[in-house]
Design a protein that fits this description.
The protein has one helix spanning 101-106, and strands at 8-15, 20-28, 31-40, 49-56, 60-66, 71-77, 82-90, 93-100. The protein is mainly β. It has a single domain (8-106), classed as Sandwich (Immunoglobulin-like). It has a 4-stranded mixed β-sheet.
Amino acid sequence: MVEENKAEVSLPFHLTRHFAGQTVVIRINGKEAARSADTRTDMRTDLARILACKLAAAPTLVQVEVPEVSAMAEVTVDPAQIQFIVVALDGRRLLNKTVTKNDYEREPRGYG
């Protein structure tokens, strides 16, 4: 029996405020999907980097970690409803904000 391929979508992660050289690890359903070393926020734009990860087009568990400060946050998302995820570092806490397609129509950057 051949298993059908699940449809995948690409979901951007906008790494924004307060990154000063840390590593950011993104896991999708427990598997590492992206890693960004030496992540630094550009104070002119409040943006450090944008990483795109492939997700199944179904509710998915997303975990973001910054090992240097022992910070981790997780959220379950439905990629069909999300335009992108904003990730900011606040001391030893990670803040994740999902920006829906409706949010994006009102404010295209979704942050700042």
